[in-house]
Amino acid sequence: MTDTHLPARLAEVREEFLELPQEDRLELLLEYSSELPPVPEHLAGNVDMYERVAECQSPVFINVEVTDGVVAMHATAPPEAPTTRGFASILVQGLTGLTADEVLAIPGDYPQTIGLTKSVSPLRIAGMTGMLVRAQRQVAEKR
Question: Are 20 and 32 in contact (CB under 8 A)?
């Protein structure tokens, strides 16, 4: 993976994880799970506006809005799935505020580069990858 197309916030998140010893990285992911922003009022309870992320074992739903070329990502993930919720939080915080072009340029292997492949199952990494791919597809469709 090259950093050429990695937005600053996602690069910071990756560095934050990689600076920690392997055994502390899961704890940081769990901290991110508590930082998942609530969905805006106009989306709350409106499940038709969300896309289910089938790659996730837990019920994760995302919605991406593009307004004047700027992306806002929203996600729901149950509190009882903290690793998945943590990944959703990283992406929501990392993609919101970027331009559509910046989101589309994020390398698809970003989830594999943040240092969690030894801390969580491959299935969980695949779930985060699924969230990113679906967000990018939604951005491409809505820009």
Answer: no
- Three-state DSSP class for 88? helix
What are φ and ψ of residue 76, in 5° steps? -120, 140
pTM, entire model: 0.94
Query: 10 near 100, Cβ under 8 Å?
Result: no
What is the per-residue pLDDT across 40-74, written as a single tens digit (0 to 9) for each?
999 988 888 999 999 999 999 999 999 999 999 99
Q: How far is residue 52's CA from residue 75's CA, in Å, rounded to a whole number?
A: 10
Q: Is 41 helix (H, G, I), strand (E, B) or coil?
A: coil
3-state secondary structure at position 60 = coil
Within 8 A by CB and 6+ apart from 43, the residues are: 49, 50, 63, 74
